[in-house]
Write a structure and sequence with these properties.
Length: about 110
């Protein structure tokens, strides 16, 4: 059982992860931190749209037809410039840095 037969090939199987995360503020930035052991940078995707929807996804192969994947969605509140948001991946950890934009009250 489980072997391919002729043109009938098994679909890949997926193990879904829910990696833990932390959010914190540092030096005027909001920072999302996710520990992602076993992942490489090219296996990750970070997307932020103009409405503040942040999507972090990843997928990596763990066998011939076996994959591990995850997807997390966040909402960035307040005033921010999407062009200033940065994502860094080092030592199996992902950091997404959102600079806080301060607005002056009552003046130009």
């Amino acid at each position: 059982m489980g072997a391919a037969c002729g043109r009938l090939l098994p679909f890949p199987s997926y193990q879904d992860l829910e990696p833990p995360f932390e959010c914190y503020s540092d030096s005027g930035n909001e920072i999302l931190y996710m520990r992602l052991p076993g992942f490489r940078r090219e296996e990750l995707s970070v997307r932020l749209d103009d409405h503040g929807n942040l999507e972090v996804t990843g997928k990596r192969r763990v066998g011939e037809k076996e994959w591990v994947r995850f997807g997390r969605n966040f909402r960035v509140e307040g005033v921010f410039d999407p062009d200033d948001v940065r994502a860094m991946f080092e030592d199996e950890a992902l950091y997404v840095v959102v600079p806080v934009v301060l607005r002056r009250m009552g003046g130009a």
